[in-house]
Amino acid sequence: MSELRYQGGFGNEFASEAVPGTLPIGRNSPQRVAKGLYAELLSGTAFTAPRAANRRTWMYRRQPGVVVAGIAHEPLVHPTWKTGAAMGVPTPPDPLRWRASPVPSDRALDFVDGMHTIVVNGDEQAQSGIGAQLLLANKSMERAFVNADGEMLIVPQQGALTIKTELGVLAVRPGEIALLPRGLVFQVLLEGPTRAYVCENYGAHFRLPELGPIGSNGLANARDFLAPVAAFDADPQPMEIVRKSGGAFWRTRVAASPFNVVAWHGNLVPMKYDTAHFMTIGSISIDHPDPSIFTVLTSPSDTPGVANCDFVIFPPRWMVAEDTFRPPWYHRNVMSEFMGLVHGQYDAKPEGFKPGGMSLHNAMVPHGPDAEAFEKASSAALVPHKLDDTLAFMFESRWPFRCTEFALAGGALDADYAACWAPLADRFRP
Asked: Within a domain: residue 101?
């Protein structure tokens, strides 16, 4: 693999070659590909999808994928990675919160073994819904992984990741995110104990949200999403490949590394994004804009304006609104909200919600600031102040979530969560 380099722009048609003179000019699959390579197409959408929505990448590789796919696979049991609502368990309509789970040190866990599903909804066969995962890993992968069920949005919380893909290498640290297309082969290398949140998206591709009245600038800029440049293994060695398909896991061993793409062009690519580049928007007069202004990426559903999944962040920002209760208001939402905290403090739960923790507020479950946050915000002098050193996020979905057995019985569930609102007394004074 060569040094890490990137090219920018969400949804762009990229082109990259590790060896000059490899990419064909004017055609995608010439009769003879340069340098004895094979042409192979990775399609992320139906061939007849509208041009603006079509996602695909041409790869020029030392051996085509059929060399790998032609080898028989055997089943692989994964006890903690679940797929679709059918693999969840009945979930009470309560606000739920989890403490940060430590990364185990008594056994080796790579990216695959260390995946623990917390909540699920939808159906991967119907290509709708998501799974919200907690990654607890302590070992670099010696094998490769392919997810045919969905694309993967990775939000590191502890530890940096180097993600080696067929199209090149991404280095991702806490504060950044990585987006890996469905069907792409990749391998995750670690620097030490690693905790991350992962959204497995079975539905429509994540994309930038429409800006509407915001105008042409704001939120996440397309050019700040970085794709890797072509890189390949100079000396391909035998490797195990794990595949996830239909919620089941399979493994096989191939004679040579699948990381053999010498050149490629297309718009179905792995990307990374630094959340520090997000242009945060808020009120500079009174009251609250809706939290949709914090949307980084959206996966639309078949109902306009109601997302299969929105990825929303709450980064450092100034609070200046006058005569306004500044933390998030108490609310019930038609959308279901799975939340995590990467670092710092979340303003609506100053003590009970810690980095590495999680919470779930399903559709129409009341939630909002705890009693401490309410008292502080209700009596604070409303001078401008900055929420700094903080990064929280949400995977928000139109489909209600179901917890997994691991989530409810794994030991991190906070049984006293609801107590944070108990001191909110009836203050009515007619």
From this structure: no
